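[User] I have long wanted to understand how a fold can be written as tokens. Those tokens are not coordinates but codes from a learned vocabulary of shapes. Could you go through the record with me and say what the backbone is doing? Thank you; the sequence and its tokens follow:
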Amino acid sequence: MTGNLFIITAASGAGKTSLVRELLASDSQIQLSVSYTTRKPRPGEVDGVHYHFVEEAEFMRMLEASDFLESAHVHGARYGTSQSRVESVLKQGNDLILEIDWQGAAQVRSLYPQAISIFILPPSLEALEQRLHGRGQDSAEVIARRLAAARDEMRHVVEFDYVTINDDFEVALNDLRAIIRTQRLQREKQLLRHQDLLEKLI
């Protein structure tokens, strides 16, 4: 049985990472794809856990070898998803989350049309700015650039299957859980998952 591939996208500061972290902690049937990136680790980030941190030359070597399912250049850094890792997890019947930007999402959908895409919006631009300042990681100039980029990113919300607004964290988290549960209950998935039961019943 093939697992579900979920794409979760949001503008920087919309709370995507926190929501995904909590989702993973409460659902053992879903995994997170760890992306490769050329950006430097932020405080507290661990190589191989949050990202695979690589040099530009290594990233470009992998790109030329077609190792990435998708790749993008965002905020001055490169990001990519390992195709072999994605295929391995899905073939085992496990669900997988790709936490990627809209460019990567478009690339993945072209190869995996069955992927389920979710866009997380902030409740307002003011809230987004407050969250970016609250991180304490970026200068005012970087935050201004991120806000400008966020407006461009959020215009792509119309390309996604589902949309949730992260105003109340628990509400947004329950939205994500509901989407995942809905996909798992689809007829084809259920008939494959419960084949033995079906044979006994009919």
About this structure: The domain at 5-201 is CATH 3.40.50.300 (Rossmann fold).
